[in-house]
Write a structure and sequence with these properties.
Blueprint lengths: L6 H7 L5 H17 L4 E3 L2 E4 L7 H12 L8 E3 L16 H16 L23 E3 L2 H11 L10 H8 L1 E3 L13 E5 L8 H15 L4 E4 L7 H14 L6 E2 L9 H4 L7 E5 L1 H9 L12 E9 L1 H14 L7 E5 L1 H10 L10 E4 L16 E4 L2 H11 L2 E4 L2 H10 L8
Parallel strand pairs: 2-3, 2-4, 6-7, 6-9, 7-8, 10-11, 10-13, 11-12, 13-14
Antiparallel strand pairs: 1-5
Amino acid sequence: MTLELSAGDQSMLQGEHGPAVAAAMKILVAFSNAVGAQRLLDIAGAHIDGCLYHGKAGLDFVERLVEGGGRVKVPTTLNVGSFDLIHPGLVKMPPSQEAPARRLMKAHLELGCQATFTCAPYQTRFRPGFGEQIAWGESNAIVFANSVIGARTNRYGDFIDLCCAITGRAPAWGLHLDENRRGRILFELAGAALEPSDALFVGVGLIIGQASGDRVPVISGLLAPRDEDQLKALGAAAATTGAVALFHAVGITPEAKTLDEALHGMAPQETIQISRADIDHALAGLSNIPDGAPLSAVSLGTPHFSHEEWMRLLPLLREVAPGRGIPIYVNTGRATLRRLQDEGALAGIKAFGLVPVTDTCTYVTSILEQLDGAVMTNSGKWAHYAPGNIGVSVTFGDMEDCVRSAAAGRVVRGAR
């Protein structure tokens, strides 16, 4: 297949918009040819996953674009970095690592990106609209945008997402196109026993991530969620255990008003039944410490806590009153934190051992006071990655159980 470039694409490629744009377009053309795209399309926005410092090569790439006069062409949000710029005292990082980590975050701002530093850009003022073409990195953001909002993006990795932002273009392939958004594997939830708890949505996500492969999953029988945060948790879990970038929940997500619509009128390639036992088994795999075991911390908010999740947490804290027990770290976006501060909602939180974390996440940056202890989390994603990333033992639980466990200093669970 031959990639057809518009006159504007050719102009960028030939350097008429400066060396940074030319470099970005050259990379984008090579990528588009590799995936078999026949043309490029305009995008309305981008979300960049390359703020997390992994080494000099990533910093060199962004700084070369800065030196070449690069500027993003569309509204562009930034994913988490390796450093909490709002609470620098929380981060345990040697100067040799801190300097490039900070520089990488700053270099993206010099390209005109927005200082969001959140993995949940869909819960900011930069939320895309239904049907909008975007180029997003960060797996949970991608699956939320495609599934819950009905915007259109593929899973763009580091550097390609930034090239799309600088050119305002993306390859017309994959989930940008109608025909590739058809559900192909059907998951049927078994009956009313599956009440729509937070844990249920995480468990369903874990299962469909493991079983779907590169197929778009359709979920039938899922009861209406309390809010979009439960769908956020489902998508994050599915993108963590697999490559899911889009799911359809029948009667819930915008491209699945009916099962027939989700499948585009075709039969599924495979149908899988999900029972209560399946959910319990999937969730059990997130815990490697037993009930009753001592804890060193609780970590909430991966993806970043929304304002609505804070509004659920704060009354719960005051009800349970953990006092000066083990710390509860809450990963959240800086815009959300600013709103809470403006509302006066965080008054007295230190008495509850609450530690807000912005701009990064506790499973990628050394922030926890004790990295050799056990941590409880309400996040399937955090529970999956933290043992390998920062070496802690982990157990999973609903938000209510996390708060009760923080108060007790050990793993406790209420009736599910």
